Amino acid sequence: MQVKDSNRNRRDFGVLALICLVLQLALAPNVGIGSGRANFALVFAGITSLLVGGRPAVLCGFVSGLVFDLSSTGPIGLMACLLTIGSFAVGIEARNRLADDFRRSMATFAPFAGIVSVLYHLTMLLVGDASSLVDVIIRRALPTVILTVLGFAPFAYVISHATGSTLSLGGKPSKSARSHGSRYDLDSV
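Structure (tokenized):
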């Protein structure tokens, strides 16, 4: 029997949001390659999209994009729009895809990060914040994608391999849990 504890899910997402916010404000501006910086708002939107999908992912994508917009010098609403649409597209299945396979999660997140980063920086070119297309693609978008995917990997690995801890949300049980059973496990009866 599975019990849905929505307060635990909200608490877990709150902790994850706080970690990503601190990383976005403290780490991302100080670590970069060229003009690219890690986008932890995109990481948070990707995790929620792959973890639960549906309306919660779209809402988390919008809020994290808005926080990103307010903490950067870009146009307000641009990242919020991109993450809202991207979270909808990635989380359309509304199921826990992080529990399925870590590599598939990475393979799903990488193009999501690439499309959002390229569109964001192309828009920055249109508003005059970048000098050329080469600057946008090579010096900004590509390093941003690399750093964002590297920032996503530890979160996805921990969440996809978690069992019974926070953010597991029905993930696969570990070998020890399967072999020893649980008092709530119907297979051990």
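The longest strand covers residues 32-33. The two ends are 13 Å apart (CA to CA).
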